[in-house]
Structure formats: structure tokens, C-alpha cells
């Protein structure tokens, strides 16, 4: 039985796994990605209902992805179908705030008065802020890390006990792993799907997506140029093929890729899928600018949508519980996400002992001080902007355009998609 299954079993026995016999308030709750979150949601909600027998948690149909989740909530906004609570991808919180769909949590935080004592530091709170609004509380947070196959690193002449600390070192070792032949590839950098991993390189170089007034594209500056040049070098020198997301995952867990760069949120599944096929290790992701570099925060936040005052009070209790130290102590072992709560990360009661026993999880934890919000583009074209960036990264990886051409084209198109002010 896995660590997480044992955890769930222990909590299930302790809590009785039963809903309260009587509840004054029922909260309808929506969340995305059930493959990641169903088990943790079940455990957290049952423990919450045990401690709050006057509140019942009722889960509505989950959404497969963050994108489907935000589209569902926007369709249901203002209707009887809209849930009382939802969990929304951090880069899509702005879409709720600009449409006044969410409930601003600042009054609740002010009334509460001791959020820091509960592990919600100002740094943690900022991850789910949009402008002057506290749109939600960060629930599951991640940063990008380096996964590596220690057996391939060793075969290529590297020392797996001293993993690469710079991108130059990664590319050099990746090229040597590719040269081993036998179907081995050097690098899988998860650029597909959205702009998160491009953000990791851009922010890691000290860059930003837009100018401070958000009127002009800024990712085409020196930092963005360094990011796309690095992606091109991964292909030309580091042995990175044109992988789909699924193909990259399958190749890495099969032992055919030296380095994989993606979210720490995939760690638990990666450990499970690798099994004993090879010596799996993790390490921090290199930064193009170690002094100024930062990393985007992936994951989601719990957001209150209920307009009824009584339901809002109950929803605030659940939001704090889910995003609090207990919730984090369930989410982290079950997924690989980093703690969204500083009390959970530091306290022996919650996760401190877990990290000592599970060192693969330490890479993401060590980067918590570098985490900044995953940038959300203004206006109604956020999804199109993201796809534009991905499409142009594809041209670089496929070598159908130079990094300079692809970056310039992406910048021109994104500029056209920004709101005109």
C-alpha cells in the first residue's frame, strides 16, 4: 500500500468516513482534475464535516482540466447551477475577478485577524490576489523542478549525487545521454499546453510578460530572448526531441530520457509509474539569472462564489480548512504539490517529518521562496494569448523558425490580443 493510500486509510478510520447526520448548511463544491484531487478532496471534506457537523460538503461534477473548470464556472455564473465554492487555476483567477463572479475575501481576512498564525503569510496570500482583491486562498501550489534518471546520468559520465546547477551543465549532459544511443533522449522540457514552463524560463531570467501598465508585451526583451534561445539549444545540443506531453511522460518513466522539467505536482504519479525501473532523482530547476530569477506558481485556489451570507460564513470555514495546514498535509503527500501553508511546511505535526522520509519532495519545497504568481493576461483573450505562445514555442522545437522569428511573431500577435486602452 502506498504512503498516500495508508494516509487516506488512517484518516478514514479516524473520521468514520461518514457525512454528519444533521447539517444546517450544505455547500456545493466544484473542483478540477479528479485524477489529482478526488482522493484528497474526499479526505479533507470528511475531516471538515466531522469537525463542523452543521456544514455538509456536496461535490458537484468535477472538471477534467483547469481550462474546462473556468469555462464551466463562467457559464454557470449568476444561475442556480453555480456552486458555492470552486477551485480555479491560479492563472485564471483574473477572469473571475474582472467579471465580479467571486466573493472578495479581504473582509473575511480582516475580520479573522490572525491569518499569519494559521500559516497564511502575506507571500502565500499574494498568490491568489488580483489587483486589490483577495480572489481566493491558494490550495494546491507547485513550481517547476528537474526530474532526472540517475542511471543515465551515470552512464553519460555525470555524477547523479551532484546534479546540474546551470542550464549549460544540463545541456552538456543531455547531449551525452543522447549520444548513448539505444533510443535514449537527453531532455524533455514540458513546453506544451500552456505558458507555464515558458514563464519558468522567462521569470527565471528576471523577465516579465507585460510592461508594468500591462499595455505592451515585455516577454520579447533580453530575458525572453534568452529563454527561447535556451529552448533551441535544448533541441540542437541537449538531445530534446519533439515530444507530445503524453509521449514525453511515457518516455521518461520508461527510462529513456535523462532530464524532465515539469511541475512538482506530477511527482507522486511519476514515482508510481517509474517504480523500480531506474534510480529516480529530483533537483531544483536552474535559473537563467540566479540573482533575479523567480518561478511561476502553478496549481489552484479555493474561491467562494456563494452570495448568501450564511453560506459565505460556512464557505470561509471550509476554504480556510482546505487551504490550511491540515489540507496541505493531505495534498502534498498525495500529489507532490508544495505546501501552500507555511505552518504545514514547518511543523512536525504536519509535514516536516514527511520531507525527511521522502527526499524526492524536497526540490519543490526548497524553491518556495522563489515562487511568484503565475501571470494572468488581462482581457477576454487570455486563452488565445496562451495558445499563441505555445504555437510559437512549437515552431522553435520543430526547428521551423529561429528563436528570434518565433519570439517576434508571438509578441506581435499577443500585442494585438491585448485590450485596447
TrEMBL record:
Predominant place of localization: periplasm
- Tell me which Gene3D superfamilies the record gives: Periplasmic binding protein-like II
User: Membrane spanning segments where?
Assistant: none
Query: Cross-referenced CDD domains, in alphabetical order?
Result: PBP2_UgpB
Family membership, please give it: Belongs to the bacterial solute-binding protein 1 family.
What is the protein name given in its UniProt record? ABC transporter substrate-binding protein
Q: Where in the cell is it found?
A: Periplasm
Keyword terms of this UniProt record? Periplasm, Signal
Q: What is the annotated signal peptide range for this record?
A: 1-23
Amino acid at each position: 500500500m502506498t504512503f498516500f493510500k495508508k494516509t487516506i486509510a488512517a484518516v478514514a478510520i479516524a473520521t468514520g468516513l461518514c457525512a454528519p447526520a444533521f447539517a444546517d448548511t450544505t455547500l456545493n463544491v466544484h473542483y478540477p482534475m479528479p485524477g489529482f484531487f478526488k482522493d484528497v478532496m474526499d479526505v479533507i471534506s470528511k475531516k471538515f464535516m466531522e469537525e463542523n457537523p452543521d456544514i455538509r460538503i456536496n461535490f458537484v461534477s468535477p472538471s477534467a482540466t483547469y481550462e474546462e473548470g473556468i469555462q464551466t464556472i463562467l457559464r454557470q455564473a449568476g444561475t442556480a447551477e453555480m456552486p458555492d465554492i470552486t477551485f480555479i487555476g491560479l492563472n485564471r483567477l483574473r477572469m473571475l475577478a474582472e467579471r465580479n463572479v467571486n466573493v472578495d475575501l479581504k473582509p473575511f481576512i480582516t475580520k479573522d485577524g490572525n491569518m499569519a498564525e494559521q500559516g497564511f503569510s502575506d507571500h502565500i496570500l499574494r498568490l491568489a490576489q488580483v489587483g486589490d482583491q483577495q480572489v481566493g486562498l491558494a490550495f494546491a501550489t507547485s513550481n517547476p523542478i528537474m526530474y532526472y534518471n540517475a542511471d543515465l546520468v551515470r552512464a553519460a559520465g555525470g555524477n547523479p549525487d551532484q546534479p546540474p546547477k546551470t542550464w549549460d551543465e544540463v545541456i552538456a549532459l543531455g547531449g551525452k545521454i543522447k549520444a548513448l544511443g539505444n533510443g535514449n533522449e537527453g531532455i524533455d522540457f514540458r513546453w506544451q499546453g500552456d505558458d507555464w514552463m515558458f514563464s519558468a524560463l522567462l521569470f527565471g531570467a528576471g523577465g516579465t510578460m507585460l510592461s508594468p501598465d500591462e499595455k505592451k508585451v515585455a516577454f520579447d526583451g533580453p530575458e525572453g530572448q534568452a529563454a527561447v534561445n535556451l529552448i533551441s539549444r535544448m533541441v540542437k545540443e541537449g538531445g530534446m526531441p519533439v515530444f507530445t506531453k503524453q509521449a514525453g511522460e511515457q518516455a521518461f518513466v520508461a527510462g529513456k530520457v535523462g532530464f524532465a522539467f515539469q511541475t512538482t505536482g506530477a511527482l507522486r504519479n511519476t514515482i508510481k509509474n517509474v517504480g523500480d525501473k531506474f534510480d529516480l532523482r529530483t533537483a531544483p530547476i536552474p535559473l537563467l539569472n540566479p540573482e533575479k530569477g523567480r518561478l511561476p506558481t502553478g496549481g489552484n485556489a479555493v474561491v467562494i462564489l456563494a452570495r448568501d451570507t450564511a453560506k459565505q460564513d460556512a464557505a470561509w470555514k471550509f476554504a480556510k480548512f482546505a487551504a490550511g495546514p491540515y489540507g496541505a498535509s493531505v495534498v502534498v503527500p498525495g500529489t507532490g504539490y508544495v505546501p501552500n501553508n507555511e505552518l504545514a511546511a514547518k511543523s512536525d505535526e504536519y509535514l516536516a517529518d514527511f520531507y525527511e522520509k521522502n527526499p524526492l519532495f524536497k526540490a519543490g519545497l526548497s524553491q518556495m521562496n522563489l515562487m511568484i504568481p503565475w501571470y494572468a493576461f488581462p482581457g477576454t483573450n487570455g486563452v488565445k494569448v496562451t495558445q499563441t505562445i505555445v504555437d510559437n514555442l512549437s515552431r522553435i522545437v520543430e526547428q521551423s523558425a529561429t528563436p528570434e522569428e518565433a519570439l517576434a511573431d508571438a509578441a506581435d500577435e499577443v500585442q494585438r490580443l491585448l485590450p485596447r486602452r
